[in-house]
């Protein structure tokens, strides 16, 4: 492994969210909060397992949770009051899932980072599960070891549902990971770190409508694995941290006391080909990055802190540990790097303002692009925000992983080379070239993962066409049907339904011409 240590965030600091107005909030620690152990979400036990088949039930449910002193906060979660239990899957397994909605309104179950068929299994807005209903999906895990995640995705209320707590880790393991000499004992030397922030109102309650900002909501209080002031008891020399950017808007700029080196070993959807050593790490909404931290230079009783900027997020309290001389291999994973289809034009995707893709607002029943199943193509993704007022936009594709080819024609950042990604930060006036292919047919979304931005319309849809079924049709949700459902569930007239982003898309899906000059073309305008 190279001895080179990178000491910056790679991104230009003038593009960081804190340098623009747009409602930025510094984090603060409320009075009276005592340090508590980091919650390690328990592993979700399967309902049953037979050979290579495994069955789970995931229930969206209401709950209460003690974030702050005083009254508990009303929350939503998966099989848990808030967030959820960690689902562990293995490459090659055939997974059967019962999706059970015990919430008072419809929701969906989106497998962020999982390569599953769409729109049904993918679980975006076309796959609602109504209150009191159960829905059954199944898929085969056909991807390498990674931290993926499950979160609600009912456009245009995705941000509100995630804000209420609907997010959980989905860990994929494989034979390659099992052989690597890295920490992998969950809850002892391997910890998920779900990075979120929240605003607490009277009696410690959430009030998403009061806080809504179409530019994205910054919470004022850090909430890490649902703990406001967490600490980790370190009992091994080396610790593996699985970071998940679970906030609606905030990007996390992480570093340790003494600029302790982090060895990054994985990105969104795979291990890195080669580990990268760094003292700083930027994690955008939707991104996952895994690091190994060696506390070998610290003694029993020492405390090492994890910060974002200059704000302390997590204390690592060092206890007695055994010496660990294990060495992370130079090569962790070899990605499949397919040849690009020479007949395919480069697709042009622009993220415009805070609410459009290719200068169009999202419409649920419009297909914006088509691509052939297993055809590898270049996507040039451009952030058209101006440098003075723009922001980093994390670009996410459902149902596929991609390789980052270049940034403005130059090499990608060291920690995004030869690693499968599904979310990538794009700076104002920057173009990032991706190599994209889909191994499942269906309809999938691509969007900014600042969740208020996707709700406001910075989202589009691609149909992946299987040549064996070129004319296959899909049932798509539309805004009118969704609004009617929310109205019935809330017992109010349709014109009184408030959904974040609806003021932008409105009901304009009715009567809009959804045809395009060339759906299969490389771009649209």
TrEMBL record:
Gene3D superfamilies: Cupredoxins - blue copper proteins. Residues 61-176, 344-464 form the Plastocyanin-like domain. Transmembrane segments: none annotated. Pfam families: Cu-oxidase_2, Cu-oxidase_3. InterPro entries: Cu-oxidase-like_N (IPR011707), Cu-oxidase_C (IPR011706), Cu-oxidase_fam (IPR045087), Cu_oxidase_Cu_BS (IPR002355), Cupredoxin (IPR008972). SUPFAM superfamilies: Cupredoxins. The keyword Metal-binding applies. Keywords: Metal-binding, Oxidoreductase. Belongs to the multicopper oxidase family. PANTHER family: BILIRUBIN OXIDASE (PTHR48267:SF1), CUPREDOXIN SUPERFAMILY PROTEIN (PTHR48267). This is Multicopper oxidase. It comes from Lactobacillus xylocopicola.
């Amino acid at each position: 492994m190279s001895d080179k240590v990178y000491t910056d965030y790679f991104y230009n600091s003038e593009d960081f969210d804190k340098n623009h107005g747009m409602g930025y909030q510094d984090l603060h620690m409320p009075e009276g909060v005592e340090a508590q152990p980091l919650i390690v979400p328990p592993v979700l036990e399967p309902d049953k397992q037979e050979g290579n088949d495994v069955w789970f039930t995931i229930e969206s449910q209401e709950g209460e949770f003690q974030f702050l002193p005083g009254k508990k906060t009303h929350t939503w979660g998966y099989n848990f009051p808030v967030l959820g239990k960690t689902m562990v899957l293995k490459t090659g397994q055939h997974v059967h899932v019962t999706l059970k909605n015990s919430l008072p309104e419809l929701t969906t179950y989106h497998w962020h980072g999982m390569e599953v068929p769409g729109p049904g299994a993918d679980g975006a807005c076309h796959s609602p599960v109504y209150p009191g209903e159960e829905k059954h999906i199944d898929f085969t895990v056909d991807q390498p070891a990674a931290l993926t995640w499950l979160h609600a995705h009912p456009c245009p209320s995705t941000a509100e549902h995630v804000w209420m707590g609907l997010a959980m880790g989905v860990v994929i393991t494989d034979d390659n990971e099992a052989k690597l000499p890295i920490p992998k004992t969950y809850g002892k030397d391997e910890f998920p770190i779900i990075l979120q922030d929240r605003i607490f109102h009277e009696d410690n309650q959430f009030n998403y409508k009061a806080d809504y900002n179409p530019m994205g909501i910054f919470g004022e209080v850090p909430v890490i694995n649902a703990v406001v002031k967490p600490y980790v008891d370190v009992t091994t020399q080396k610790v593996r941290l699985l970071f998940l950017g679970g906030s609606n808007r905030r990007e996390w700029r992480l570093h340790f006391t003494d600029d302790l080196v982090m060895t990054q070993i994985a990105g969104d959807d795979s291990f890195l080909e080669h580990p990268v050593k760094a003292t700083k790490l930027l994690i955008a909404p939707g991104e996952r990055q895994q690091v190994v931290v060696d506390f070998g230079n610290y003694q029993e009783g020492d405390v090492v802190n994890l910060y974002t900027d200059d704000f302390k997020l997590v204390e690592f309290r060092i206890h007695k540990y055994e010496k660990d001389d294990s060495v992370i291999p130079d090569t962790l994973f070899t990605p499949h790097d397919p040849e690009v289809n020479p007949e395919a034009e480069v697709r042009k995707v622009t993220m415009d303002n805070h609410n459009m893709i290719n200068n169009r607002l999202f419409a649920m029943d419009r297909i914006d692009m088509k691509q052939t199943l297993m055809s590898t193509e270049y996507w040039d993704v451009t952030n058209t925000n101006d440098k003075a007022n723009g922001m980093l936009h994390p670009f996410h594709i459902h149902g596929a992983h991609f390789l980052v080819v270049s940034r403005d024609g130059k090499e990608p950042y060291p920690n995004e080379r030869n690693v499968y990604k599904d979310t990538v930060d794009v700076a104002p006036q920057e173009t990032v070239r991706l190599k994209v292919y889909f191994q499942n047919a269906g309809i999938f979304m691509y969007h900014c993962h600042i969740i208020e931005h996707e709700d406001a319309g910075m989202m589009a849809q691609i149909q992946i066409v299987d040549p064996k079924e070129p004319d296959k049709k899909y049932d798509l949700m539309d805004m009118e049907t969704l609004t009617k459902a929310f109205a019935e569930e809330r017992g109010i007239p349709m014109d009184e339904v408030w959904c974040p982003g609806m003021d932008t898309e409105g009901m304009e899906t009715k009567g809009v011409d959804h045809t395009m000059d060339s759906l299969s073309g490389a771009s649209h305008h």
